[in-house]
Amino acid sequence: MTPPSGVVLLTDRLVARGGLDRVVAGAVAGGVRWVVLREKDLPRAERATLAADLRAILADVGGTLIVAGPDPLGGDAVHLPAAGPYPPPAHGLVGRSCHHQPELDRLTTEHYATISPVWPTRTKPGYGPPLGPDGLRKLVDASPVPLLALGGIETPDQVTACVQAGATGVAVLGALMRAEDPCAVAATLTSAYAKAVTPELLQAGAEAPRSPRRGLRPTVPTQGSSLTARSGHGRPQPQTATKGERT
């Protein structure tokens, strides 16, 4: 299985504006093809159902759901915490959260890792210190696996800086989960990524090559979908910012 690249969405239903299904479907419509399901506080049965619903959103565009933790919940892609388990379980795609060189040095059979925080983040205030593009570049150069940049990434310029530092993509939570229009935000960030990885083509006036995972656009689920009908994940909410945010 190919490691994730581009803009990777991390979920947090507690800050998802308008419901988690709405945000994920909007982000997918804007070009996101990789989603990491977190929500680790949910019982396994609820989380497995949520995983199935998000896979259905991704299916029409050939996207991939990665599940945080060692249990893939019916799939074959997981993202592990820095603390373990070691050795990693044998799945088709295994990633791990890392924050500094010693954690990267522990990687064995993982296929990719996230590295964070690159910038200060509202999701985990005070977590760091931030690496910045220069710190990111040093870890990319020393990493045995492809790295996704994570932490405080909200703007096209930040996406570009991460790609120029060598990251294969960016993992985004708050900028998409809290977005009034997740489709528009995703489109802006994925466009910045595409321009950053194909500068020579764009400078020559050629159209950037399309990924086989791009081009299709799913329909955003209505409030009557199975996901929005269940308490806790995607209950329809007013189009206002959620007050509670996890740290």
Blueprint of the fold:
Elements: E1 6-10, H1 20-29, E2 34-37, H2 44-59, E3 64-68, E4 77-80, E5 93-98, H3 101-105, E6 112-115, H4 132-142, E7 147-150, H5 156-164, E8 169-172, H6 174-177, H7 182-197, H8 199-203
Parallel strand pairs: 1-2, 1-8, 2-3, 3-4, 4-5, 5-6, 6-7, 7-8
Helix pairs in contact: 1-2, 1-7, 5-7
Could you please describe the fold and organization of this structure?
With 247 residues, the protein is an alpha/beta fold. It has a single domain (6-203), classed as Aldolase class I (TIM Barrel, Alpha-Beta Barrel), CATH 3.20.20. The protein has helices at 20-29, 44-59, 101-105, 132-142, 156-164, 174-177, 182-197, 199-203, and strands at residues 6-10, 34-37, 64-68, 77-80, 93-98, 112-115, 147-150, 169-172. Strands 1-2-3-4-5-6-7-8 form an 8-stranded parallel barrel, surrounded by 5 helices. α5 packs parallel to α7 (182-197).
Features:
15% strand, TIM Barrel, globular, eight-stranded parallel barrel, 247 residues, disordered C terminus, alpha/beta
Unreliable sequence segments: 206-247
Task: Quickly give the structural class.
Answer: alpha/beta
**Beta-strand level of the residues, as a percent range?**
5-15%
- What's the CATH class label? Alpha Beta
The global form is globular
Strand order of the largest sheet: 1-2-3-4-5-6-7-8
How many angstroms separate the termini?
32 Å
Q: How many structural domains can be distinguished in the coordinates?
A: 1
Mean pLDDT: 85
Examine the coordinates and then state which fold CATH places here, giving the name of the CATH topology: TIM Barrel
Helix-strand topology string? EHEHEEEHEHEHEHHH
Corresponding CATH architecture: Alpha-Beta Barrel
Number of strands: 8
